[in-house]
Amino acid sequence: MTVKFEYVGVDISETLNAFTTERLHKLSDRYEFLISAMVRFKKDEKSHDKGKICDIELSLPGPRIFATSDEKQYEVAVRETIRDLERQLKKRKETYSTR
Fold it and tell me: InterPro entries from the entry (predicted)?
C-alpha cells in the first residue's frame, strides 16, 4: 500500500510520517484489499483546546473510505482516525464476505 502525506499549514515531520505509515501498514496487513492512503495533517488556529487535525482517505475497491479526527496531539488524532477507519473496513469486509 502506498501512503502519501500532505501538510496544510504545519511543518513536515518525518517522525509523524513514520508513526502513521507503521499504523497504516498494520491495517493493510489485516485488510489486503487496500490500495493507497492519503494522509492530511492540518492545524485549526481557532480551536484552543484541540486543533490538531488528521484526515485519512483510503483507496480500495468500491467507494473510498474517509475519516478525520481533531485532538490535542497529532499522534492521538492518527490513532483515533485509524480506529474509525478500521470500523468502516470491518463493515466493508463483511459485505464482501456475504456476496
Answer: RHF-like, RHF/RaiA
